Amino acid sequence: CRSLFSAVLLLPALFLFLMTRRPPRSTLSSSSAASDVYKRQGINAEYGESARPSMGDQDYAFVPRPVYDGRRVQRAFERDTVDYNSSVIKHLQNRTIFRDVRDRVMPRAHGTFSCNMETPQAWTELPESSFCTRHVKTQRNRPRPAPFFVVLYNADGQRLMTGQSSGEVVMWHGLTFKFEAALQAHNMAVHSMVWTHNQQFLVTGDAEGKIRYFQQSLNLLKEFDGHIIPATAHTELHYKAIREVSFNPHDTKFVTGSDDGDLKIWDFQTTREERVLKGLGTEVKAATWHPQYALVASGSKDNHIRLWDPREDSRSFSINAHNQGVNRLAWNANGNWLLSASKDLTIKLWDIRMKKELRRYRGHGAEVSAIAWHPIHENLFASGDRNGQLHYWLTEQETSQDCVPNAHDSMIWSLAWHPLGHMITSGSNDQSVKCWIRHCPGDVEEDRYQGEPQRQQFGRGFSNNSQPYHQNPRNQETRRPDDRHSHRSDRPRHQDQRMLPGVGSAPTAPMGFTRGGVLGAPPAPPPGMPNTPEVQLLQQVLQQRPDLQPELARIFNLPPPQQGQALAALTQRLTG
After folding, report:
1. 228 touches 240 (CB < 8 A)
2. How many CB atoms lie within 10 A of CB 278?
3. CB-CB contact of 416 with 428 (8 Å)
4. Long-range contacts (CB closer than 8 Å, 24 or more residues apart) made by 207-214
5. How many CB atoms neighbour CB 447 within 10 A?
6. Long-range CB pairs of 217-224, under 8 A, 24+ apart, other chains included
7. Which tens digit of pLDDT belongs to each residue from 2-55?
8. Were 469 and a residue from 44, 173, 491, 535 both cysteine, which residue would form a disulfide, CB within 3.0 to 4.6 Å?
C-alpha cells in the first residue's frame, strides 16, 4: 500500500517532467506543413533557432519565431513612377564643369547612355530631345468615369489637377500618378481651371457660368455667378458656359470668356465685375491674358482673333485668322508670339508686333482642339486633335516633327506640360488622362499607341516616331505604293530655312544628333544640291572616291535639264 501510494504521487511529477523536457535535436521532423516550411528555411520550428551544425561551445544565433497576426498578407506590386532626380543631379553636376554643348558628351543610341540623361534645361539647344512619345500611365476616375476637359500641373509638379464633365475636380500625385483626392466642385462640367501665379488659389469655371475659388487643399473659399443672361418678360434666365479663365501677371485681375459672346474683367479680391468687353457677336472659345502686359487675346466661332486693352471697352485689333472657328489660343513666354488652333485643321503662329502670320502648321487630320507651349524650349509646342492624335512641332518647321497617332480614342481636350518639361499629360473625351515621357537612348519597344512596331532611336531627340509620309495630307497625291512599309527614318522631311524674327533658322545639331534622320544615316547634300536618291548615292560614293568631286561640281553648274541627264549618266556609270 505504501509503494502504491508513492507511485500515485510520482505520476503527476513524471508527467510534468516529460511535457517540459527539451527533446533531442534528432526528434525534430517534418510532421506538419509548418515545420516543413521552417525546415526548408533553415529555422528550428519549435525554438526558432538556426538549424546549422554545432560550433562547439558557441551558442546558436537566436532567430525570432514568426508570429501570424491574423491579417492577410498583401501581394507586393510595382507602382509606375517617373523619377527625375537622377537627371536633375546629373545636370547640377555637369553645369559646374561644362561651358556649353562643346564640352557636353551627348548620349548615343544605346542603353548604356541612359545614365547621361539630363533635364531639358541642360539641352536648351536641342528641343528634339523633349518629344514625349512614350506612354507611361493611364489614369481614370473609376468611381465616376467622365471625360476630362482640363488638366493642370501646379508650379512644383507634385500635383496634377483634372476637371471632368461631371463637375468633379480630381487631384493626382504628379510622380507616382496615385489618386489623392476628389471633390464635387461644380454641378456642371468644369471647362476651365487655372492657378494664380503664386500658386495659392485655384479658380474654376463651369458650364453654368459659375466661378469658384479654392485653396491648395481644395477648400471652397468663394462662389459667384459669372456669365448669366437675366430673365426678361419674354425670356427665362440663361446660364452660359465659361470656356476659359486667365490671370493678369500680378494676380489682381482675371478675364473670363463665355458662350454669351462677352469677355469680362474681374477683380480677384473683391469678385467685382470691372468691365465687359462686347462686340464679338459669337461664342468665345478662347481668352488668354498676355504674360507681361495689359493685353487680352480672344478667339471665337466667327474665325477672328481679337486683341483687347482691358483698361478700355473697345478692342485694339482684329484678325480674320482662320477659315473656321478658333478653338484655342496660347501666348509664348517671350510675349511676342501667339499660337492659334482652329477647326480648319491648321495651327498658326502670329507675331503681335507686326500683326502678321509667321507660320502655318499642317498635319492634323481633324480639328485641332488643344495646344500647349513647352515650358523650357521656346520654339517647341504640342497639339492634340479630334481624332486623338498627339503632335509635336518646332516653330521653324511647318510640318509635324513627331506624332503619336493613337494617343487617345477620342478628342483631346487639354494638354499640360510638367514644369520640368520632361513629361506631358493629355486629357481626353475617352474618360482617361494619359502621361507621356521622353524616350531613353536605345529604347526598343512595340508601342500600341504608335500604330505599328517602332524602333526608338536617339538620333532625333529620343525617338524616331515622326509622322508617316503617307499620313501627311500634303503627300496624299504623290505617295509611293511602298511608303506604308518603309521605315520612317528613310523618308524625306521638309526643311524650311526661313528665319523667324528673334529666332533665326533651326540651330545646327551637334555630333550625335542628326536632325531629320538617325545615327549612321547618309550625310545631307551640300547647299544647292537637290535631295534626290541619285544625289544621296553620289554622296556615299564620294566618301570612297574623293576624285569625283570636281566632276560633280561641274555637273551642278549646268542648267537643270542638262544637270539631270549628266547625273543619270554618272550614276549609271558608277553602278555599272
Report:
1. yes
2. 14
3. no
4. 207/239, 207/241, 207/242, 208/239, 208/241, 209/239, 209/240, 209/241, 209/242, 209/258, 210/186, 210/239, 210/242, 211/242, 211/245, 211/256, 211/266, 211/271, 212/185, 212/186, 214/169, 214/183, 214/185
5. 19
6. 218/169, 218/171, 218/181, 218/183, 218/185, 220/185, 222/271, 224/271
7. 777 677 777 777 776 666 555 544 433 334 444 444 444 444 433 333 344 444
8. 491
Per DSSP, the three-state class of 161 is: strand
* Long-range residue pairs from 572-576, CB within 8 A, at least 24 positions apart, any chain: 574/537, 574/538, 574/541, 575/537
One-letter amino acid for residue 185 of the chain: A
Kindly report the average pLDDT of the chain as a whole number. 75
Structural contact between residues 405 and 450, judged by C-beta atoms closer than 8 angstroms? yes
Could you tell me the CA-to-CA distances from 341 to 330, 364, 383, 456, 568 in Å, in that order? 9, 11, 9, 29, 45
Q: How many CB atoms lie within 10 A of CB 356?
A: 9
Contact by Cβ (8 Å): 302, 325: yes
Given a cut of 50, whether residue 435 has pLDDT beyond it is yes
Rounded-to-integer distance, Cα 180 and Cα 184, Å: 14
Q: Which three cell numbers stand for residue 355?
A: 500683326
User: 34: Cβ–Cβ under 8 A, 6 or more apart, which residues?
Assistant: 45
Please give the Cα distance from 497 to 503 (Å, whole number).
Answer: 12
- One-letter amino acid identity for 530? P
Spatial distance between the Cα atoms of 505 and 488, rounded to a whole number of angstroms = 24
Distance separating alpha carbons of residues 475 and 347, to the nearest angstrom: 18
Contact 413, 164 (CB under 8 A): no
Closest listed residue to residue 312, CA positions, set 274, 352, 272? 274
Q: Which residues pair with 504 in a beta bridge?
A: 500
Beta bridge pairs of residue 206: 190
Gap between the Cα atoms of 405 and 407, Å rounded: 6
| Calpha distance 188→152 (Å, rounded) | 19
Q: Which residues pair with 265 in a beta bridge?
A: 255, 275
Tell me the CA distances in angstroms from 118 to 6, 98, 113, 550, one per residue in order.
89, 13, 11, 44
Q: What are phi and psi of 464, to 5 degrees?
A: -125, 45
Question: How far does the chain reach from its first CA to its final CA, in angstroms?
Answer: 127
Say if strands 179-184 and 168-173 run parallel, antiparallel, or are unpaired.
Answer: antiparallel
Cβ–Cβ < 8 Å for 534, 426: no
Provide the percentage of residues in the chain whose pLDDT is more than 70: 66
CB–CB of 138/432 below 8 Å? yes
Question: How many degrees, rounded to 5, is the angle at CA 87 between CA 81 and CA 92?
Answer: 145
Q: How many CB atoms lie within 10 A of CB 60?
A: 14
pTM: 0.67
